[in-house]
């Protein structure tokens, strides 16, 4: 398939996602939730909306334009997909198919149905993709690997795939920078960054950087509209467990009734908890962010003051060029393709 054909088929997949009926969405939810109770109907719909935005013909054409992605002979690229949030591996799925290589997908046990559903939907649109999309239990005989997992699994991936060109991703999380000058709209939007997908994604905010003497009350008032998260029994169990630990250990913490906040220099908080840390001034803040750069996926804040920040409320709506771990997947596939 030529690039123009691949893009047209993927754009058609975007339209098919847009045209899903309520019955089809309910079916997707039922099957996906049978493997992962965190996958609510709202979470799946949010993921599909993000993918639909990806699959815009003009956006795809602009995205791939700087790269040479027409390999003389397609090679086998294995993709180990994560399953922490619905369809989290779709960007890799998209990148490999656009590169013209053969995609070998190893699904997460927590999300085996949704990526398979979309791949079959794509094959129905363009049967030529049949030979480019392979479901794999074992990734043997691959020419390159893209794998996403925990810090522990990444060590296994690094060892097992050390002889192949590879991208190995580890645990990351996201943080937000507050100044005390945020509007009600800013703080309310921050709730999306914290609570969408129940905080399970690497782009979810698990850490706040706040100035000394920061007043948390306006933030707590704005977050009240998200208190429905506590009605999810898995989230509620996490909240009850973490609260009991803090109480038994007599650890200082703040409690909104559905979210716990604790002061610490740590980055990755458990579900239902957001960590916070004070900074003295801009230089101190920049040092703290630099020290944690290998753990940070993205920084949320006032993007008008810092172009490197993601605007409040937009952490879970990345663009095509917002690469996980800041590793350019298309560049990797381009360089891999050019090697003899």
Reconstruct the topology from this structure:
Layout lengths: L2 H16 L3 H12 L7 H14 L2 H8 L11 E5 L9 H10 L2 E5 L6 H13 L7 E3 L8 E5 L2 H10 L5 E4 L3 E5 L6 H12 L9 E7 L5 H7 L9 H16 L5 E2 L4 E4 L9 E7 L2 H10 L4 E5 L28 H10 L2
Parallel strand pairs: 1-2, 1-4, 2-3, 4-5, 6-7, 6-11, 7-10, 9-10
Antiparallel strand pairs: 8-9
What report would you give on this structure?
With 340 residues, this protein is an alpha/beta fold. Helix content is 41%, strand content 15%. It has twelve helices and eleven strands. The strands form two sheets. The protein has a six-stranded mixed sheet, sandwiched between helices. Helix 5 (90-99) packs parallel to helix 12. The protein is globular. The mean pLDDT is 94.
């Amino acid at each position: 398939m030529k690039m123009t054909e691949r893009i047209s088929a993927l754009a058609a997949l975007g339209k098919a996602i847009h045209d899903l009926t309520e019955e089809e969405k309910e079916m997707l939810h039922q099957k996906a939730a049978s493997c992962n109770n965190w996958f609510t109907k709202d979470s799946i719909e949010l993921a599909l909306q993000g993918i639909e935005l990806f699959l815009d013909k003009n956006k795809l054409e602009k995205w791939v334009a700087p790269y040479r992605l027409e390999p003389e002979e397609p090679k086998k690229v294995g993709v180990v997909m994560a399953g922490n949030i619905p369809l989290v591996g779709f960007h890799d799925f998209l990148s490999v198919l656009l590169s013209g290589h053969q995609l070998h997908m190893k699904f997460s046990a927590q999300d085996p149905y949704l990526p398979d559903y979309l791949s079959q939907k794509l094959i129905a649109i363009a049967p030529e993709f049949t030979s480019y999309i392979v479901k794999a239990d074992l990734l043997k005989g691959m020419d390159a690997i893209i794998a996403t997992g925990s810090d522990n699994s990444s060590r296994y991936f690094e060892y097992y795939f050390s002889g192949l060109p590879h991208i190995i991703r580890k645990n990351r999380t996201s943080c937000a920078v507050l100044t005390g000058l945020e509007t009600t709209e800013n703080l309310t939007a921050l709730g999306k960054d914290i609570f969408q997908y129940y905080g399970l994604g690497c782009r979810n905010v698990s850490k706040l950087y706040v100035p000394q003497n920061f007043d948390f009350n306006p933030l707590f008032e704005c977050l009240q509209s998200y208190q429905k998260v506590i009605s999810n029994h898995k989230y509620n169990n996490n909240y009850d467990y973490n609260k009991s630990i803090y109480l038994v250990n007599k650890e200082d913490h703040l409690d909104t009734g559905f979210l716990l906040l604790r002061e610490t220099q740590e980055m990755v908080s458990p579900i239902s908890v957001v960590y916070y840390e004070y900074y003295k001034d801009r230089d101190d803040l920049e040092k703290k962010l630099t020290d944690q750069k290998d753990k940070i996926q993205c920084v949320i804040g006032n993007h008008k003051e810092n172009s490197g920040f993601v605007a409040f409320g937009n952490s879970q709506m990345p663009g095509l060029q917002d690469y996980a771990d800041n590793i350019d997947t298309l560049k990797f596939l381009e360089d891999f393709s050019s090697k003899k």
